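Action item from last meeting closed. Structure (389 res):
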């Protein structure tokens, strides 16, 4: 059987949840059936996901030349603003002509560029995964991304993929359709189930005191992750527990730094907590790092469905999460859901160990190998499975 060529179209291969999911698609799609290619707007720089993809010899095509991100500065940003409307579609057209893909799977805010070359996509299957709240990625019915999605659904049979049942319903209602598919943010259980490391080993490797009370968080330093409130919670806990330690994993916008990351460091240092927290960037060993934690905190303002939260629960951690998280992401009774805004409430809940500690639920629906099989069926047009299963 001839292979189907699949292009995964992503802005840049950073280390966020959406990028990690795309990385897993690239690695785990059956290479006997699919020839996969990653098309990025910009080349990533020293990210764990980029290194994993290149190490596994996945072909990567970038829209802008390699130096565009390496020398990323204000002139480049201005140039991008000026030329992106015509340059990105022009490059895409050339890539499509050369690659002759059967399938293009789009992520993030990139549908507008496909709309610009819609006539070139007549015989190509199009898929779009909404990685966060639909109103965040697609906007209202006058936004460029919404208009692009509506056009491609009508004229190019674009198929939408949601991360949980509520998102599927929302996307269907938004575009007056009934064929949005559900595809869970799965993880590769083998990385967690066959993990021989221990808490002592990981704390030693990370130079964290063995007797520390380690609060953990995984997420890029972007607004939805709510790092400012995370810092407020830790400041309250640290005032009551001298062994409290905050371990954050995530990079800032535009590389490993970013002004949000810098502000959090300044806030914690000003509170006298220098040496009692650590920020790790560009890590591919999250399954091991989670072992060092006692409690996983996730105070997000909004989420699609977080891979990091799934990973924390599969790792057996007690999790305290915001009520902005869709209930589909609460997979175990070890999760405690709290409203945002009251750092004292969060701190007291964490210090008082106020969460259930019962056995885990069945995680089978979050096994990436099962979800990949569903994705392969979508790609091959085998729509005999239920759209919201």
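Sequence:
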């Amino acid at each position: 059987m001839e292979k189907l060529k699949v292009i995964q179209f992503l802005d840049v291969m950073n280390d966020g949840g959406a990028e990690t999911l795309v990385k897993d698609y690239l690695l785990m799609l059956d290479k006997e059936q699919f020839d996969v290619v990653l098309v990025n707007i910009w080349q990533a720089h020293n990210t764990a996901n980029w290194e994993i993809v290149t190490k596994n010899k996945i072909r990567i095509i970038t829209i802008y030349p390699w130096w565009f991100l390496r020398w990323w500065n204000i002139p480049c940003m201005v140039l991008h603003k000026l030329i992106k409307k015509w340059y990105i579609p022009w490059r895409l057209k050339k890539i499509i002509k050369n690659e002759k893909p059967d399938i293009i799977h789009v992520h993030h805010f990139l549908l507008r560029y496909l709309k610009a070359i819609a006539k070139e996509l007549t015989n190509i299957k199009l898929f779009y995964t909404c990685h966060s709240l639909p109103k965040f990625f697609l906007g209202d019915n006058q936004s460029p991304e919404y208009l692009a999605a509506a056009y491609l659904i009508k004229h190019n049979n674009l198929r939408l993929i949601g991360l949980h049942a509520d998102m599927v319903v929302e996307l269907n209602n938004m575009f007056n359709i009934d064929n949005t598919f559900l595809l869970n943010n799965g993880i590769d259980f083998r990385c967690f189930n066959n993990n021989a490391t221990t808490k002592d080993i990981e704390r030693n490797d990370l130079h964290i005191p063995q007797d520390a009370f380690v609060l953990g968080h995984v997420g890029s330093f972007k607004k939805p992750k709510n790092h400012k409130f995370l810092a407020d919670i830790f400041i309250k806990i640290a005032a009551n527990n001298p062994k409290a330690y905050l371990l954050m994993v995530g990079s800032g916008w535009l590389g490993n730094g970013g002004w949000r990351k810098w502000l959090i460091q300044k806030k914690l240092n000003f509170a006298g907590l220098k040496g009692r927290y650590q920020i790790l960037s560009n890590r591919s060993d999250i399954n091991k790092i989670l072992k060092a934690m006692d409690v996983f905190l996730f105070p997000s303002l909004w989420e699609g469905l977080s891979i990091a939260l799934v990973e924390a629960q599969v790792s057996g951690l007690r999790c305290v999460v915001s009520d902005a998280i869709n209930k589909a992401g609460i997979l175990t009774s070890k999760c405690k859901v709290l409203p945002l805004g009251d750092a004292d409430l969060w701190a007291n809940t964490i210090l008082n160990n106020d969460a259930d500690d019962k056995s885990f639920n069945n995680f089978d629906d979050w096994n990436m190998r099962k979800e990949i099989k569903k994705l392969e069926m979508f790609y091959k047009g085998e729509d005999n499975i239920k759209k919201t299963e």
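Note appended to the action item: The chain has two domains: 4-186+367-380, 189-363.
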